[in-house]
């Protein structure tokens, strides 16, 4: 592991900054024009928790400056729940007693058409960890099929080689989402009992391999609830700094997933409550002004409605976390109880878009057209 990587794994100095924060340091961090990891440490501190209104105001101003009043919408599409790994916190872990399946070509097309009927143009394809039943070749076929119908196709799947990421790009994939889950090596080993995902360093380097291969975006994050959230988030921020500096032409997105109820019943060891999640989002918006911040349907409607446009600029909608969940909505085998996790916001696209409009926000279903070629100037 490189020297740069080792720096991400030692949040100690910044945890000391966070612990020593006071009102003056919080106010200075909120108003800082070029905030970095030191300011983030302050804004994640208990002292900053007393200034959520001020942080929210600053976060909203920054969000409006860089993203206007728009909220980009996408949907996850689970193409397989086969998995060869043993993640303690996941409903798809290989020792979970759930029906396993993967979408066949006709089923994938049915899912695609069901999402298209909802007006969605951005889709995130998801699988379990690499397995014989759903390997790279299968995912590549799914990307090829989806890219013929959607303006943007990204994947959230297993870590791959640079060559495999390049093949995904050639098939129409524009980016990946891949969470490190936790940057604490000891907790990581405990959470990932077996399988390819147990290799911490291989996963850590995956976003860099994807961007090196030419993909345009990489979504990163930690699974809040696994370990000390402040330590994990400080490491995440350092990781983002490295990726943005190294791959300055690419785009980085940041998500804030919390552990949800799932088949397996793993409870978060360090729960993140709503107030702290809001503080985290405001802090990241202040310190990463132009980076899209993402919030999924893991969160309940009242929280999503309240936080939209105040830091968050991208959200999933009408999500199903089951394989075949869109085209088989009335089929008991495709209900959320057998998904990767329970969806907390079940609203339809129309209902959620109306909620955004009532807040004066503009839902965006498409913001990229691969067929468009900008004019050339001689």
Describe this entry's structure for a reader.
The protein is an alpha/beta fold. It has a single domain (3-364), classed as Alpha-Beta Barrel (TIM Barrel). 39% of the residues lie in helices and 11% in strands. It is built from 15 helices and nine strands. The chain has an eight-stranded parallel barrel with strand order 1-2-3-4-5-6-7-8, surrounded by five helices. α2 crosses α4 (37-43), α3 crosses α4 (37-43) and α4 runs antiparallel to α13 (274-287). The N and C termini lie far apart (46 Å).
Short description:
By secondary structure, the protein is an alpha/beta fold. The protein has helices spanning 3-8, 12-19, 23-31, 37-43, 52-67, 105-117, 136-147, 162-170, 185-191, 200-204, 206-212, 229-246, 274-287, 301-307, 349-358, and strands at residues 70-78, 122-126, 152-156, 175-177, 217-221, 251-255, 293-295, 314-316, 362-364. Helix 4 (37-43) packs antiparallel against helix 13 (274-287).
- Outline, from the CA principal axes? globular
Number of strands: 9
For the largest beta-sheet, the strand count, sense and barrel status come to: 8 strands, parallel, barrel
Briefly note the structural class of the backbone: alpha/beta
- Shape-level CATH architecture: Alpha-Beta Barrel
Give the CATH topology.
TIM Barrel
| CATH classification, class level | Alpha Beta
Strand order across the largest sheet: 1-2-3-4-5-6-7-8
Helical residues, percent: 25-40%
Number of helices: 15
- Sheet-strand content, in percent, reads 5-15%
The succession of helices and strands, N to C, reads: HHHHHEHEHEHEHHHEHEHEHEHE
- How many domain regions? 1
Mean pLDDT: 92
